[in-house]
Amino acid sequence: MSDRDNIMTILRFGNTTSQMTDKISDLVPRTAQLQDLFDTYPNGVRHGTTFMIGSFQGEAGSSLQLNIDIHNPNFMRGQDWATGAGVGGITKILMEGRGWTLKEVSAHYQTFLGIEHTPPPENPIKPELARQPEPIPIQQPEQVSAKKVYNLSTPFDAEYSYTDEDGVVLVSVRKYVETDSEGNTKKQFRQFMDGRMGLPEPRPLYNIPNILASDKVIWAEGEKCADALTSMGFAATTTIGGAGMLSDRVADKFDFSPLNGKDVVLWPDNDKAGHDLAVLVERLAKAAGAKSTVMLRAPFGKPEKWDAADALDEQFDVHRFIRQSESKVKKPIHLLDDSLNISKYFVGNAPEQQYLIGNTIPLAVPVIFAAAGDSGKGMMTLDLAMKVASGESMQSSFGGIVSTHGDAIILSAEDDKDEMHRRIERMDPLCKREHYPNNLKILPLPNLGGVFPIMQKIDTSYVMGEEFGRIYDQILEMQNLALLVIDPMASFVHADVNADPAAGAAFMGMLAQISTETGATVMVNHHMAKIKDNDPVTTPEQARNLIRGTSAIVDGVRCAFSVWNVEEKTGRQRCKDLQVTYSRNAVFDGAVVKSNGPANRDIRHFIRNPNTGLLEDRSDDIRASNSQMSEAVRQRLQHMQDFIAMMEREGNAITKGGAGDGAFDAIATSASGEPCVIALKEARETTIKNTITALQEAGRVNTYRLTQGGTKKWLGVTGGMLSTGEYEARTARENL
Fold first, then answer.
1. Domain 355-617, CATH 3.40.50.300 — does that match?
2. In DSSP terms, which residues pair with 524 in a beta bridge?
3. Which is more confident, 628 or 439?
4. 3-129: which CATH architecture?
5. Which pTM was predicted?
6. Mean pLDDT of 504-523
7. What percent of the chain has pLDDT over 70?
8. What number of helices (H) and strands (E) belong to the chain?
9. Could you give the maximum distance between any two Cα atoms of the chain, in Å?
10. At what angle do helices 501-518 and 466-475 cross, to 10 degrees?
């Protein structure tokens, strides 16, 4: 006799209870048995592989203990310590805990037992006496009998409502958190329909109204995570019961149809169980007609079970994380539907431009950093990478504050490990790098097998280099990458990007792909043409035109930053104003010379730090110095005007230059204690003459002759005694 025939016989002709109990224990999946145990006793406590409850009546306690290790031969067996009796099997538990009969337990598990409602066979001896079996009620395996009604007044910690598209509640999930005497907590979830424990058929997705109204849906594990994502502006959902209820066996009981036509992002908990559940959900979403699916992977270093709710609590950049992960998946292009139509593809408010360096260098774009040789490009990008990894908002060498932090990578083709180490030590003598919250990986390629091409030409095509491709696969696994530095460009391109516009365009396109897929700024160090001594750079436009290569290089990037030498005269003056020693290649200007979006295009002023060799942005100091100098000039002009007026009033008018009555000599020999005299005594003769010239040009001072034939030009203030004819000489000096 087959197992199915044996089961039919047991049900119809009253074979022993023990036989039926054994069949139920053997054929019903142990995960289903566990769920029924937990549903029957919501007051139970789970400690490892032991489940504890006060008694079959369901009160809290530990007298009744059961083994719930699904791999143990003694599964669902245990001891009632209050009575001393042994306990065994899910059948006993359901009969005692829910008040069911054996037939009701069998009907509950009829799917697993293979029971069909067929007429009983005729009694071959006395057909008229054949006993008809009682009808077996049709019940789904996971549903709880209506006989069990739970006390809805029991305090719960959270409640989540699953609704239909009109907002009508289909089922409510309540979360209970219990704490034992040792402070350990346990979470339990119970599903209620109309005041009774149970589940609807089919089982709905969470947050249906919102996901139906959105083109992109994020699935997360658990209602708390879905709500966290919803609070951040996403259309988020989950599946009821998590991994404990969704499996291949019962997948057909879940309704994934709301995901039809949607782009679905899956965010599992950071553990194997979460990943396995997400894989199943992804398969079911595709089967339901999802347009695309993307599986997120927790960033490196995140703890086990890390999820969306944890991300919200730690103020993690969720938007960037999701955008970065989505960019790594090549999605099919469908031009024949309306998915790429402007009305569908560009919906809602446009995202704000994010910056690596505030309002200067954008995030997630390719950037050219061009400068002349020996300008310190490598030092500036190393400094930037260290500040990105440090997690601290510090002033960058490019002007502006480092506003995005994360992992950074430098591909260095020219500097070996020892040189890089020396540079790092100069900039970080206290070894703060040992405590960076993010990764900074510097690849000195001379020590790692040499340089490899990022792009190379094969026949007539430009392709990604094979070795870089292997490294790039690893780069794509870095979920928190913010900066990739390529230093210099010429070493990594096996094509003539300086002369061939097609090569330049291909390489820039490859950089754009890398920045989009990684979500990182890709900064490429490049060279500028040599500046002629007689034709110095004074504007960002001039600097842009000096970037080497075809126009495709600059045109192909979102942002270009250049640094150029200043004239020696200007450099010396800046060093003097800042009270630093002037040296060649120590004074530079720089600016954003190309940007496809808003950017600070102000010219920055750099002075090389003699200790680190790093170009430091001293723009604010230089502006302050200029401001101070301007104030000093204004004061000097006023003092000179006051001195001229004083001498005019005293009848001792002076000339601009010359011995004796010239301004410089008059100031030097004056015994007056007036502030103007004191202030001017330290000035050089040239400064005195230049100051008087400035006063004359401003119309504040004029020259006068005392007689028609006089040869000397006497200085007087506008509106003073000389101008009105009231002046009277009081010395024996020649006034004619």
1. yes
2. 368, 486
3. 439
4. Alpha-Beta Complex (3.90)
5. 0.54
6. 92
7. 88
8. 25, 29
9. 163
10. 20
